[in-house]
Design the sequence.
């Protein structure tokens, strides 16, 4: 069973930056797509960014131009660089397979991101 460990969250001011990391217990080299998801209080979990095994990327409209997803296949780690943070980015962030846009493995504990205005 693949295990996911997210880290790097914290408290940031609006306009600030954070870099999230996701350590995957198995190889990510051949996975079709890895993604970052987020869940805000009272809302459904949503996919905000994905990266394909060909290093193609996709972003939700709400984060496009501000967030950058990347991966290091040697370290089996996926990153999310978040710039120009907004209060509406406040959520718990998770990583998972993004081939179907809904996650395939058991969810990790996530990492809390809180953006103050």
Sequence:
């Amino acid at each position: 069973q693949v295990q996911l460990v997210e880290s790097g969250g914290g408290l940031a001011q609006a306009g600030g930056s954070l870099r999230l990391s996701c350590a995957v217990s198995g190889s990510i080299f051949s996975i079709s797509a890895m993604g970052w998801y987020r869940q805000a209080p009272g809302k459904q979990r949503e996919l905000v960014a994905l990266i394909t095994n060909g290093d193609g990327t996709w972003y939700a409209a709400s984060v496009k131009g501000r967030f950058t997803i990347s991966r290091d296949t040697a370290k089996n780690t996926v990153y999310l660089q978040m710039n120009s943070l907004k209060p509406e980015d406040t959520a718990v962030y998770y990583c998972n397979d993004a081939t179907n846009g809904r996650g395939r493995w058991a969810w990790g504990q996530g990492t809390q991101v809180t953006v103050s205005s």
In short: The chain has no helices and ten strands. The chain has a mean pLDDT of 96. The two ends are 39 Å apart (CA to CA). The first strand starts at residue 4 and ends at 7.
